[in-house]
Structure formats: structure tokens, C-alpha cells
């Protein structure tokens, strides 16, 4: 049974890519190396098989192996392991949650159902049934630009009453959503930003931290920004965050995780593997060469 609570959900967390070989097979050696780098950067948690990890393109066996390796790598560290277990149907989520519990994850992150559009009541009952049977603490995940199911703040507030639901990763584009959540949710409920480019604003509004894509390539910096914000040093946080503007821009050139995998490959950290229907990023789409060189020089050094 996991001892993770909402109080542990703060600071910088990384939605890790799933490294793949050129033929599309998962590269488990590189996976371990990426995890060790995140641990060294003192990232609070890594997310296994999230959106950035190409969750919808992984088999259940691959998910289990990725998670098993992550748990083994992190078991004597301060970095927690969170498994993304969201699926279209409720029973599949429950199955993945049970697997995550057996492997030894600290919590599960569950995206709202996608493709099948439902009501707020449907979302509430979906997550309630999942939480009723979950062996691990549940973190809700709202990303309506991908799922077309926007879980409103009032629905999240209702679900927050469940003892197994301890937080939410909020990635709605509505910049007032974090304020709504802060107003409606109990103080002990964790609110995590799911957008790199606005996470500093989200923390100013009351979010506890961020689940980041950018921290795949700049874990130290993302973690430091979150630390500055927790200490109330907004000036230092803004200065460091501004220095990442080119990175944030580059990560938006194509749908996630295409750009971040391109950057990690350019830095020699992973092979150029990705799965259809995703395609590899063309170099001509990455902006100026000077911007790319600057980002490359900063990876693994800052």
C-alpha cells in the first residue's frame, strides 16, 4: 500500500518520454538512463506512460515493464513513481490500476476518457467507481484539448471528497481554471499544472507544482523554478522561466511528444524512435539553428 499523500505532490515532476529504437521497440536501457538523470535532478516524481510517454501506443506488457524498471530505479530515492492508467473504458482503468499496485507504483494518474464524450455526471461516476477499487492514490488528469471531455472545477470538487482521490493535473487552456480549483477544493487537495508555458502563473494562483514535458530536457531548471515559487522568490522564478522561452516555443512546433523526443535525440540521449501515427520532427521545423544550438548546450548542464 502506497504511503503517498497530497502533501507529497508538489514541485517539479516529469512526464517522461518512452525511448524507442528506430524500429519502434521500447529502449529499456535508455529508459533506465533517463530515470537516473531525473533522480539526479531531484525531480519529485516521474510519470510513466503518460501522454508524453505515448501511453495509447504501448501494450500492457510494455507498460508493465516500463513501470517495473521505474519502481526499481526509484525505490531507494526521493523520486516517486506515478503510473498513467487512463483508458476509454472504466474497467480497463481498474485493470491497469491493479497492475500498477502489484508492481509497486506510488500513485496513478488517470486522464478523463477520450473519444467517447460524456457528461459531468458520467465523469464523476467513472472516477468514483475507479477510486472505489483503486489500490493506489488517484490523481485526476484533465486535458480537454486532447480528450474533448472537459472536467469542470465543480466536478473535481465533488470527486475531491473521495478518500482515494488526492489531486489533479489540470491542463485546461482556461487560465482561470486554477483559480476556480483553488476556490472550490480543500487546501489539502493537490493541484498540479499540466502546461509548461503557464505553470509559473498557475503556481502564483495557488497550484502546488507542475507535471512537465520540458523537464525531460531541463529537469534542474523546472525543479528550481518550482522551488523558487514555493519559497516565495517570484523574481528568481520568473527570470529562470524566461530563459526557457525558446524551449517552450520549440516544444509547441508539433504535437507532444514529437518535439521533446527530437531534442533528446539531438542531445544523444535517445534513439530516433517514435510510433505511428506520430512522425519524427523535421529539422526545418525547429526554428533557427542558433536557438537549437543554445537548447542543446543547456541540456544535461542546467
Can you tell me about this structure?
There is one protein chain. By secondary structure, the protein is of the alpha/beta class. It has a single domain (6-241), classed as Aldolase class I (TIM Barrel), CATH 3.20.20. The chain contains 13 helices and eight strands. Helix 2 packs parallel to helix 3 (90-103) and helix 4 (120-133) packs parallel to helix 6. The model has no long low-confidence stretch (mean pLDDT 95).
Concise description?
The chain is an alpha/beta fold. It contains 13 helices and eight strands.
Q: Which series of helices and strands comes N to C?
A: EHEHEHEHEHHEHEHEHHHHH
Largest sheet: 8 strands, parallel, barrel
Q: Which descriptor suits the 3D outline?
A: globular
- Beta content: 5-15%
Specify Rg, calculated over alpha carbons: 18 Å
Helix content: 40-55%
Give the tally of structural domains: 1
Number of helices: 13
Strand line-up in the sheet with most strands: 1-2-3-4-5-6-7-8
Distance between the amino and carboxyl termini: 36 Å
Instruction: Report the strand count.
Output: 8
Q: So, CATH architecture?
A: Alpha-Beta Barrel
Quote the CATH topology.
TIM Barrel
CATH superfamily: Aldolase class I
Instruction: Specify the CATH class.
Output: Alpha Beta
User: Which runs of at least 5 residues are low in confidence (pLDDT < 50)?
Assistant: none
Estimated structural class: alpha/beta
Q: What is the average of the pLDDT values?
A: 95
Protein name: 4-hydroxy-tetrahydrodipicolinate synthase
GO molecular function, one term: 4-hydroxy-tetrahydrodipicolinate synthase activity
Enzyme class: lyase
EC number: 4.3.3.7
Amino acid at each position: 500500500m502506497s504511503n503517498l499523500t497530497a502533501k507529497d505532490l508538489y514541485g517539479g515532476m516529469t512526464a517522461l518520454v518512452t525511448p524507442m529504437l528506430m524500429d519502434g521497440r521500447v529502449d529499456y536501457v535508455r529508459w533506465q538512463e533517463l530515470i537516473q538523470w531525473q533522480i539526479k535532478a531531484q525531480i519529485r516524481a516521474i510519470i510513466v506512460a503518460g501522454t508524453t510517454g505515448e501511453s495509447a501506443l504501448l501494450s500492457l506488457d510494455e507498460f508493465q515493464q516500463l513501470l517495473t524498471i521505474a519502481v526499481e530505479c526509484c525505490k531507494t530515492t526521493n523520486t516517486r513513481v506515478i503510473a498513467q492508467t487512463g483508458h476509454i473504458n472504466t474497467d480497463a482503468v481498474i485493470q491497469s490500476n491493479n497492475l500498477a499496485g502489484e508492481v509497486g507504483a506510488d500513485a496513478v494518474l488517470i486522464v478523463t476518457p477520450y473519444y467517447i464524450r460524456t457528461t459531468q455526471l458520467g465523469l464523476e461516476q467513472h472516477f468514483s467507481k475507479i477510486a472505489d477499487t483503486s489500490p493506489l492514490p488517484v490523481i485526476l488528469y484533465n486535458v480537454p484539448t486532447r480528450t474533448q471531455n472537459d472536467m469542470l472545477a465543480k466536478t473535481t470538487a465533488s470527486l475531491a471528497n473521495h478518500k482515494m482521490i488526492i489531486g489533479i493535473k489540470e491542463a485546461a487552456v482556461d487560465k482561470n481554471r486554477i483559480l476556480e480549483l483553488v476556490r472550490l477544493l480543500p487546501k489539502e487537495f493537490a493541484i498540479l499544472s499540466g502546461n509548461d508555458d503557464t505553470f509559473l502563473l498557475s503556481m502564483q494562483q495557488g497550484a502546488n507544482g507542475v507535471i512537465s514535458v520540458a523537464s525531460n530536457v531541463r529537469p534542474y531548471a523546472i525543479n528550481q523554478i518550482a522551488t523558487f515559487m514555493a519559497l516565495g522568490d517570484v523574481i528568481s522564478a520568473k527570470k529562470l522561466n524566461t530563459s526557457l522561452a525558446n524551449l517552450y516555443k520549440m516544444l509547441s512546433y508539433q504535437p507532444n511528444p514529437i518535439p521533446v523526443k527530437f531534442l533528446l535525440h539531438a542531445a544523444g540521449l535517445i534513439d530516433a524512435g517514435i510510433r505511428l501515427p506520430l512522425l519524427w520532427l523535421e529539422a526545418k521545423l525547429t526554428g533557427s539553428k542558433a536557438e537549437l544550438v543554445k537548447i542543446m548546450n543547456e541540456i544535461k548542464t542546467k
